Automatic annotation (TrEMBL):
PANTHER family: SLL0088 PROTEIN, TRANSCRIPTIONAL REGULATORY PROTEIN. This is Transcriptional regulator. It comes from the Bacteria. NCBIfam families: HTH_metalloreg. SUPFAM superfamilies: Winged helix' DNA-binding domain (SSF46785). GO terms for molecular function: DNA-binding transcription factor activity. Signal peptide: none annotated. CDD domains: HTH_ARSR. Residues 1-93 form the HTH arsR-type domain.
Amino acid sequence: MLMPDPLSQTFSALADPTRRAILAELARGERTVNQLVEGRGMSQPAISKHLKVLQRAGLIERGREAQTRPCRIVPEGLEVARRWIDRCRADWEEAFGRMDALLAAMPARQGEGDQP
């Protein structure tokens, strides 16, 4: 089976609102699976499946402390998405800069605004 590239895995993991909510909670600190289940109206197995997707995408890691497996966010996991977004932003800014220069070089139209 062909493994998806890291960027696709990241965006696929972030596409689900439950996983984004889990990441937002983990951004505030480490949580156990049971703590993540509380207040979500989802079963522990369902949350565990979401955690596996986040872990495969490199967005979280799971530790081992006695009987619990605390989850923590891996901020570097978002780096692949940030780099891609930054490249897109640079391309868009360059294209808009060229368009601005082209529009500035165009002569003003005579009589513009005279007609209804």
